[in-house]
Amino acid sequence: MPQPQLPEPAHAQVDSMLSRKFGKEIANYFSGSPLNRVSFLRTDHAFLSAALRHPSTSFLLFNSLSPLARDPTKLEYASFKDVQPLVGDDPYSKNEEQMVSEYNSSVTVPQLLFLGLDEREKSGFEWTIYHGSPYFALDVTPKGTICSTAEKLIESMKSRGLQFVEGRMHMSLPAEQAAIYAQARALLDWNARNPFCAQCGQPTLSINAGTKRTCPPKDLASLINTTSIGSTTATTPTADRPDCATRKGISNLCFPRTDPTVIMAVVSADSERILLGRQKRWPKYWYSTLAGFVEPAESVEEAVRREVWEESGVTLGRVVIHSTQPWPYPANLMIGAIGQCTPGGEEILLKHDPELEDAKWVTLAEVKEALHVGTSGLGEEAGEGYKEGGLRLPPRTAIANQLLSAVTGGFLEGGNGGSKM
Amino acid sequence: MPQPQLPEPAHAQVDSMLSRKFGKEIANYFSGSPLNRVSFLRTDHAFLSAALRHPSTSFLLFNSLSPLARDPTKLEYASFKDVQPLVGDDPYSKNEEQMVSEYNSSVTVPQLLFLGLDEREKSGFEWTIYHGSPYFALDVTPKGTICSTAEKLIESMKSRGLQFVEGRMHMSLPAEQAAIYAQARALLDWNARNPFCAQCGQPTLSINAGTKRTCPPKDLASLINTTSIGSTTATTPTADRPDCATRKGISNLCFPRTDPTVIMAVVSADSERILLGRQKRWPKYWYSTLAGFVEPAESVEEAVRREVWEESGVTLGRVVIHSTQPWPYPANLMIGAIGQCTPGGEEILLKHDPELEDAKWVTLAEVKEALHVGTSGLGEEAGEGYKEGGLRLPPRTAIANQLLSAVTGGFLEGGNGGSKM
């Protein structure tokens, strides 16, 4: 399968003293969204209401985290008219204060996200000094009180020859669509994973156009339940809920979670070999760079050294961060680094944390050759020119590939060694 | 107040091709822990049990997130004998499977964390190929069924002339103690913020020596409650709890949360000025670099450009990551970057996201002078030589200071421009 182009963010490659010293910026797959998130407008319901109902507005629909698409290489969008039966005439007619005070956990509200404005499109949509085509995402998974309306919407999309594409789409979408998909998927998944407050256990409400969840002080559902089931206690029915610490000041629990992850190309002390590892479930001959989660109160540089030692026994000195990649399965931020071994620190020991089936040192020449003929997604065949038994590596859409390309392309000598096409 | 030394991690400064090209690694305050976390041993209860009860073991106690200390410049540790009345003879006598199956949400279990081994200390503690003095942290906040035992422990510590130091300790602890404190504080705070499962709303159980929370399928408390209060329904009392998605496969909700944050020194297109901003609540003349949270599905480089534009209207091109800093208030990973303006992109506009009271361009010479005489913590006086009206900046323990030092120290020309002392 041909690999998609990598993104080219608008300003990243402007010539500057910084770019002359450090080389071109590597923009990894899933980054490079064309949308301006105008994040400060997410609480402005007059703006959201106007953007939602503009004729130029695009809605990316998801059914159980699978996006609507023509095929796995092209997302398709719905219009406001399409989604109106599900979201109503104006879900932003009330402000957030009203929404919180009228919270009722027994009513299913379809999850809607404002993604941003595509300022390149002269759509006629304007709001004070901002303009462009608005983009939203909408979860149409049939559930709760919206079940049958959602099912009808899904059927009407399928009748147009469209489908909800399952699985990971990271090998096939063009870069800009991949970035829009990643933003929507990450936020829908976060909302779906956090219907309850981790601080107090009570149901939460989505606000800020899908980018915040709050723990309301009242729930009208408790009034309804008390009335319909009948209370066995002597207390007066009330919508008030128990106190919650997240209502005082700012709690990070109310905001989307992103898990920082380190992924690193490890170079030998003599700069001539690279450390690669493999997991048991991977295809034969397929290796990659080492990776792992950043722990609390650890710098990225320390996390790189700890993970490399734990997984391979190898001891690293200087670590330099190369580039980063959002990874929406479910919510990782991959921080790509290059680290160099301490002299004598190259001995491999897999038994500390037995996560890898194998780890080995490979010459720069062998890695370079594999980057040329042996790259592919995990479920795909290697490229043309690959000979059975040769090293296989991740595709260009993976930051591991970019890190290896950087090292074999001269990162330690000069420039950033990127392998952009 | 004298500023503490910055950390010097063991291997980071070993000479290598990477360090010759990129200069010395900047290790920021709160990183540089002397402990080996041996994270893969956290599920091994035989190891934890032996480590906990070894005579060389140190326990860092926290009361409502305030650590035990001699004074704000020196942490103090308790011994196993001190904490035994609270934690019991061996809280690791049962394995995790047993703990989960016997889960009872009505019993308060004091939160205990295994932090790691200090391998420099010849303590006599050995476990297979690992050795060193074990470090644990323990939450002694009086609450629930452990209230009076915890109060007694607190009193016995105070009777030794020790105190639980309130507030942020980031200005005064020596670097290695600051890193141990940061790890313990971040993990205790995460456990305290997440007593319930965000996926299903039910209480959760701490496992993996304080680094994981699980949603048990049974809760013995529901049996007890049903029996003592008396059930009004016809169902048989059961300890079984409703299904939860976090019990199938791996859920990130079970693991500590770390929020990636960007903080950036912004350089003008001609490389002669730096962009600084200030918040209204800061002392007069006090400025810093801009900063903000990374959003879902955004690379670090994109987050830097977005935040700078949203807060100041300035447009950035190339962004390079300089160094990182853990920040345990409550769980941030500060990713420090240096970005350069696009030509003509320097115009300041504060009205997009009105978070800053002011933003301005300052010459490199003025920043250099302020780094020399005008640095301090937010609540402190500026240093000697500072003249009223001059620029004030954050202290060396803040990554903002390191980024500004890098730029004024020649980061764009060569080396990393760090200002280590």
UniProtKB/TrEMBL annotation, chains A, B:
Q: What is this protein called?
A: NAD(+) diphosphatase
Determine if Metal-binding is one of this entry's keywords: yes
Please report which protein family the annotation says this sequence is part of.
Belongs to the Nudix hydrolase family. NudC subfamily.
MF GO annotations:
metal ion binding; NADH pyrophosphatase activity
Question: Pfam families, per this entry?
Answer: NUDIX, NUDIX-like, Zn_ribbon_NUD
Which top EC class applies here?
A: hydrolase
Native source species: Alectoria fallacina
E.C. numbers: 3.6.1.22
User: Please, which domain of life does this record's source organism belong to?
Assistant: Eukaryota
Q: Which GO terms describe its cellular component?
A: cytosol; peroxisome
Q: Which cofactor does it need?
A: Mg(2+); Zn(2+)
Record keyword Hydrolase present: yes
